[in-house]
Amino acid sequence: MREKIYVGDSNLGFGVFANCPIEPREVIFYVTGPVISLDECLQLPDQGENTFQIGLDAYVNPGYPGKFINHSCEPNAGLIDDTCVIAIRQIVPGEEIRFDYSTAMLERLWELDCRCGSPRCRNKVRDFDLLPIGVKQRLLRLGIVQNFIVEALEELSPLPHNSSKIAAGNV
Ligand SMILES: [Zn+2]
How far away, in angstroms, is 52 Cα from ligand 1 center? Predict the structure, then answer.
């Protein structure tokens, strides 16, 4: 079977591109690699720039193709179940696949000047909880925010849907 993606030149260095049409919610690839701690991230030659945060102190140090996926403030893909990259809209062959790095960032360590080129660019890539409320809501609705972040946010300030869940559980 032909691979769904290939790694090629992007305006941000390397990038991951679609090799075929990809439908919304379709699985594109899984991010694979050893799971390491934040301390171990910081000891990597690139200080963990390409790692995917999957827990408060857990990161996947990805191999091909995950290490090559770039960020966009207006992404066509997202992460579910920690390491699964899915499309969030139709993607055409040759289109670069990007996700919003902030959906996998909650650490108060890292910030990046954004050059994604989207008209909706936020200029800085930063921790999820620091995003404008409208952006947060949109990403949460799409279900592409890492589980550990959703859980951490709910601990800070319970979301309305939680209280209804608790109420339903009490019946
Ligand atoms: Zn941007």
Answer: 18
Its pTM stands at 0.88
**Percent of the chain whose predicted confidence (pLDDT) is above 90:** 81
Distance between Cα 89 and ligand 1 center (Å): 18
Q: How far is the CA of 164 from the centre of ligand 1 (A)?
A: 35
CB 69 within 8 A of CB 15: yes
The pLDDT-based confidence of 156 (bands split at 50, 70, 90) is: confident
Domain boundaries, the chain: 5-157
Ligand 1 center to 122 CA (angstroms): 5
Say yes or no: domain 5-157 is CATH 3.20.20.70: no
DSSP string for residues in 67-99: GGPEE-SS-SEEEETTTEEEESS-B-TTPEEEE
CA of 8 to the centre of ligand 1 (A): 20
pLDDT (tens digit, 9 = 90+) per residue, 92-144?
999 999 999 999 999 988 898 999 999 999 999 999 999 999 999 999 999 99
